[in-house]
Amino acid sequence: MPDHKMPPTLRFMLAARRCELHGLESLSVTCELVTRISQLVHQLQKERGYSNVYLGNRTDHYLHQLDAHSAGSAAVEREVHDCFLSMDTAQANAADRARLFNRIAYVLHGLEELPGLRRRIRERQLSPRQATQAFTRLIGGLLAVVFEAADTAADPSITRVLVALFNFMQGKELAGQERAAGVEGFSRGHFDDELQARLLHLQEGQERCVDIFGEFADAEANALWQQILDTDTVAQVISLRGVAKRTSAIAQVDPGLCELWFDLNTRRIDAMKQVESHLTQCLLERCRRSIAEAHADLDNHRALLGRVAQMDAGSDQALLFSVHSSTLDVPPQDAVGNHLARSVLDLLHEQNQRLQQVSDELQETRETLNERKLIERAKKLLMTDYGLSEDAAYARLRQSAMERSMRLVDVAQSLLSFAARKAQEKPRSDKGKRI
Amino acid sequence: MPDHKMPPTLRFMLAARRCELHGLESLSVTCELVTRISQLVHQLQKERGYSNVYLGNRTDHYLHQLDAHSAGSAAVEREVHDCFLSMDTAQANAADRARLFNRIAYVLHGLEELPGLRRRIRERQLSPRQATQAFTRLIGGLLAVVFEAADTAADPSITRVLVALFNFMQGKELAGQERAAGVEGFSRGHFDDELQARLLHLQEGQERCVDIFGEFADAEANALWQQILDTDTVAQVISLRGVAKRTSAIAQVDPGLCELWFDLNTRRIDAMKQVESHLTQCLLERCRRSIAEAHADLDNHRALLGRVAQMDAGSDQALLFSVHSSTLDVPPQDAVGNHLARSVLDLLHEQNQRLQQVSDELQETRETLNERKLIERAKKLLMTDYGLSEDAAYARLRQSAMERSMRLVDVAQSLLSFAARKAQEKPRSDKGKRI
Prior knowledge:
The structure is a homodimer. Chain A is mostly helical. Chain A has helices at 8-56, 63-85, 97-122, 128-152, 156-188, 193-216, 219-229, 232-246, 257-314, 323-326, 335-386, 390-403, 408-434. Chain A is built from 13 helices and no strands. The longest helix of chain A has 58 residues, at 257-314.
């Protein structure tokens, strides 16, 4: 029996299943995209690193490596670009795709700028910091696409992997920024207060990110990460962090440490990419599995409901939904009919409970993303209302959390609630008068 | 220039706008449905009330009125049914429609049972409580559709009205259940402990619902509600609540009060319907306005981006996204081209900020819905783990909140977190070993 000929109740039950399947199919395209974005971000991080050392060095010592990394980025860039263009923007009709598409537009815009950026780096028209900022902005845009993918995914098991992946990517990006900040300080021979604060901020950020990653990733990803933490590379990075911390204008170190710092961090970041690759494989694997399950469920469901609908059509009275069998606990009068009616009602309840559970799990998993949004919003509020820099706004939140022994997110929440109450005071009193 | 011929960045910017518009159009269909559901719930509440008094009375005194109300329900039922069938289930591909469609399947199933239920009531095969429960289940299913509509709406101004409406409908439904519980007690001459607890639970529930309604509804709806609170009817209901509270097996009252209680509450509930009608009008008005705005925005956007794309195509180099103008604060080299490039980048940022704000506002507005879900989940946990009834589970949560001077939702949250931690302890230790 074709779906549209089914009785309405059964049709809506099937439509609910079909929506889940379509949602998964579209999520799977997004996950493919995320996988390629992870590659591109890694390439751009390398290109940023070598642009940085190329610009910091007066000779063309690093030009060859830089060119190789630019070519590497460009190849992955085309893949990501094709992936964007293959997305079915015309069919999409869900409001939450709007955010994803807008993030993609931002990235496409950034990609268009890359050739010009590369030229200007080679012409040494930019300072290392300017070049770093331009790459960082584009990488930030790419991470925002991954964030939206995680925030709109509707399958809890996939959302968990996306949350782990987003946080790990974010942590790795902060590691890349730490590498750049370290290059700046070591090549100068010391770290001033601003650069020290920046390093600390980047290190704490990495910790928060990998904590969340650890909570949501599977045992294998956690084990891979533990292996990296146990390497000599990481031990040496930590020891150089200590060196950086002890420097000052009157206690300088050999600028030669710059190269060691850069190499160690590059090795650390490359190792992190392995964890990321494991996560993207998990992601695609989960998508395939969930889609296969949803297909099989839909087919079973359709077959079962088709049999019910045929029995129902052949019967004189509505066997299917007779009040006797299903709601009022009266002994069944027709064994077969009532057996089916029972099983349809069971299916309906089961589907409902499952969807409810999916929604609860999503809610919980997205909680960490929401916390992130709250902290970002509180930071923005401090930046606009008090004219603070991003680092200073974050430091203010952090200090306030430490003083009151509260979690960062709770401080952010109470700051936002306070601002919202203040903003509402005026209209509320007006409303009071009108009542 | 047709959308698909635009440069990719512009195409994704337009796609984002189009998604918003499509989301609104589909939301508007849901809102029409919600409006009719509000009518149907009101009719079913009347029919439930008269079924109740008909079954409680040994004569056919109320049969005529009951028949009239059943006919009234049946007419609105057909409208709701048609509304369901006109929904485009085949086109929907968003995963969050699954919950809505499943709720609708549940309601359709309930509607199929209504003729049988009506027959059995007239044949006096059910007790008043059984009949009440059957109607209450269907009304609960209809309210769940409104809840899903509120929870998946993606326009904050519409979500606010839906949250106000859902809570008001829920409050009105609890008033209907209070009327039924009162009829049961007054006709018996007194209220035993269980019925007293039930009345209290229903009264507190109404208060919580109208509090949330008051927070989200506009001034006019609040004023209408205030007018109702000031009527003699409400004063008399409150005084009868006091009478009910003072009854016991040894302090009975005249069962004649039953009719007075029923009439007063019926008047109260009918008056509440006016507030609901105001809210549904607001809802449809808001939908129309938001859709008109989104249409106009999309047209403007398309025209502007079309002009930009044409300039870009006619130019030798990519004026539009040259790195000079947009990211690196270098003085513009081409006044016209750069002016447009700036404005595209501005549009992109603006759209991004707007979408972010929409998402933040939705988050805040849905907070009350999430709180409701948390309380429901905690209640269910107590019911399954401790074998409590729904009322007892709620009473337990409430007492715990009072003892610890916490909000109900925070008690629910900590109970759920505790249960989640306990459930995770086992797998966590396994995972520890594997690492």
